[in-house]
Structure prediction request, 287 residues.
Amino acid sequence: MGKILDEMTHLRGDIDRAREGRVQAQQARSEQLADQASAVEGLLAGFAAARANQSAADRASRQQFLAGLGQDINALSQGVRDMMQDLQQARTEQAAAAAEERRAQVEAIADDIRGTLGDFKQTMIAFRSDYLASVNEDAFARAGFVADTATQVADLLGGFRQERSEQAAADVQARLAFIRDLSSQVAAFQNSVAEDLAGVRHLFGGASEIASRSAKPASSSAAAKKPATAPSAAPTKQAGAHEQAQPVANESVTNGSKAPATARKPKKPSAQQDAKAKESKESTAGD
Prediction:
């Protein structure tokens, strides 16, 4: 028990010493903070005093600078006013001298213009007189030229009309000669076609008569009718041949060309037609 009590006593002493150390440390920090606070307050007081002193010095310096600047500006303004006054006076004097010089120049120019106008008037009077004389001469020349031109144009038109009438007469004669030649050609072509048609009619008409003679009549009425019907077929064939030949003739006349060889010359009879013609001749000879 005694040992425990000693340890407790020793522990209590340690705790008290530790508390006293902390208290001392706390007091030391408090004193340090107080010293620092006083130092900061002194620093701030010194800064404010230095700033106030510097502001007062700067204000005094600015006031002095502004006063000097105002004096300089006043002096400069006075100098500018003096300069402008001198310039205005010099300009007035120069303007007066220039105005006098310009007045003299204008008077000289006016004198020159008046002299020039006088000369121009004299020149215009001479020009008008010369122009009137020239106009009269030109009028006579133009009148002569117009008269000559009118005569030449009249002669040219007369010659043109005469040449035109002669050319028209020559063209009429040429057309008449062409129409006569064309008419003779058409007439010759028509004669040729007529001859060809006559040959065709003769060929087909003779064959039909031979056939009618060679056929034996069955009765007297039939023999009387056959000669009447046989010739009717020939005109039909002849009319058909004439109708076939007529367009060819019309086409040849329209085109102004010669008729083709097939229209001018009849076609040669075929072998069957030759045989029928021979048989009809033999039968006619036997009768």
Summary: Helices lie at 2-214, 220-255, 261-264, 271-286. Confidence is low (pLDDT under 50) at residues 217-269. The chain is about 95% helix and 0% strand. The longest helix spans residues 2-214.
